[in-house]
Write the structure tokens for this entry.
Amino acid sequence: MKKNIAGLMLLVALSFAHVASAAVKVITTTEDLAAIVKEIGGDRVSVEALARGYQDPHFVEAKPSFILKLHSADLLVLVGRELEVAWLPPLITQSRNTKIQPAGMGYLDASLTARILDIPTGQITRAMGDVHPQGNPHYWLEPGNGRRVAQAVQQKLTALSAADAAYFSQRYADFDRRLTEAEKRWRAMIAPYKGLKIVTYHRSWPNFADAFGLDVIGYVEPKPGIPPSPAHTLALIEQMKRQNIKIILVEPYFDLKTPNAIARDTGAQVLVMPPSVGGVKEVTNYFQLFDYDLNLLVSAIKQSGA
Amino acid sequence: MGDLALAQVVSFLAAPFVASLILTGIHAYLGVHVVERGVIFVDLSLAQIAALGATIALFLPGSTGDPHAPSVYWTSLGFTFIGAAIFSLVRVRRSRIPQEAIIGISYAVASAAAILAMSKSTSQAEHLKDMLVGNIIAVSWGEVAKTAALYGAVGIFHFIFRRQFLAISMQHDEPERTGLNVRLWDFLFYASFGFVVTSSVAIAGVLLVFCYLIVPSVAAMLYAESIGRRLAIGWTMGTVVSAAGVYLSLILDLPTGATIVCTFGVALIVMWFVRPVLKRA
């Protein structure tokens, strides 16, 4: 009798395992990509992000579970453009999962179809200062790129699970429609302040600024990871005073000391603005990211009277 | 991790675990020297000098900007040897300036110089720091085999000349009277030590390497006097702590390197409190 029950339980467990394995297992590096995969994959995929939205995606401390998750993944979606280069490549190798190796079917570099800014043209010389040879990796902060990434995800999921092709295509169409509506709303929110000049901490916002008509005129951090020199900070303060710049955007994982000092001197406001889904508790999907950031920005502008 | 078989989990952590055993083997031994010499932070200093070398290598003509290029490795090794030469030259008998001061100064200047170099580099600066510091969870079997071979060679070298190496570390005035070339052996010690530390930091990170070096050696001094016994205790402690650290990082899903470091701290505290109890018994 005992044996029968054990056998029955095993059978139940196996059938559950079967149902579970029917869903495409997707691992993404960031929560932004996970949010987009969820929009397209619905209940036909299981999706999990490695980095949390409040972490700096350039530096993520690997945990044992990362390798185990990558090992059992059917699809890995990454931001690319060297954003994850410091931590992801050894984990992919160590996962011993042939599907998600760079040449495999289950490897999707979401940047390949996105509109990438800041790509240097011609010969890169030292005089140009810090340059990402492959362009700026923070491209998801432009709704148009959310759509492009969603389309790439739809095509990849269709290739991996042909039986669900119609489902994915319908969900993409729905996402596309909702995004187009939201874009109208977002543009209307920010329209009165078109051409507003701002300063940002890191070079995370070129796509965001481009999409919503903002003008980033300087950076608190002259080069990523390098403390600003006094000359740079003084020049920035001068420029902000001259051009009457009242907004400094800072990503949640950077130290506020220098931005606050600059703000004291210039009367500007420091806005801690999440560049990713999961950057603050309220932002749990791709739409809320723009709702939250634009609301924050607009209310700061109204307050400062800029 | 639910649906993953235990054997599978073990197979993923096998390489990091074996790597941690290799680290225990060489560092617990070198740690005895370092603690005897009273140059506790020499590994941090040499690791920082090596990092400076790697940063500067990216500037040299012909650099492709790839931090894993062979030229970067050789430049950083060259800097390590310069550091070793400095440390062996500043060791002056009955000097008023402690050697630890020179080591501290080297650390600070090398770190700052690396920041200056990075502020002038064209690209990769934001990743460079991370690439020089390894993560033990991501170590591959190839790296484990290469490291085992290198450290085996260093270990044999130290075993053959153990008389000289122990003499310069343990007795501070005696070697000069017996006609031993202290500067030469000091240089060979720091050079081989720097070579090991640079390679270890690249696979395991600075914090973890420091712990493997110092903690087993200090823990062993609580219980034993002779070198042989101290090595036996240090190696045992390193092995047990590595196993416990890797296991804890797995079940609690914490970053592996930092978990091993904290396990070392807890183990040392436990050994500290157990000692009087054992002494009384």
The mean pLDDT of chain B is 84. Residues 6-37 of chain B form the longest helix (32 residues). The two ends of chain B are 44 Å apart (CA to CA).
